[in-house]
Amino acid sequence: MECDINECAKAGATGVVVGALTPGGDIDEPKLNRLVQCAAQHSLHVTFHRAFDHTKDPMAALRVLISSGGVKRILTSGQRATAEEGVGVIQQLVGESQGRIQIMAGGGVTPENAATIITRSGVAHIHASARSLGTQPEPIHSNPLCPFRATTLPPEGVVMQTDAEKVSAILIATHAAKESL
Domain limits of the chain? Predict the structure, then answer.
């Protein structure tokens, strides 16, 4: 992972997203410290990804990430499938963090629930994929007997792409929610 961080820095990135857990569901502190030190050598911001949602004790994991001194934010769905379902845990994380680390709600964020997630959890940051199905810009030749994609994915020629209308709707909802706080 350190090699990946070095490559991100060479490519001009300003931050990286990492995650490291032990088999028992704790933050792997030695590995995390190596990753944070590597990122710090390049002045990269560090976000801890949704591996956080698989920790056995989210408050203990929060304290470890704060004490690392190098993790700027945590991306979490509150240990549930979606941030909306995990809003209670996210709210606890925001309170416990006391501004020492950013809590970013992510996972199933939509224009319909973004404002609710912000107002109920108290987060200042959200992460959303805001995707929709689209079509591939130019058709490619393919053999229908041997698809490139897993059968559980959309059919060939159909792609997931960022939906500008969803992004706009999420921004409108989040700005309105933040103004009401």
Answer: 2-128
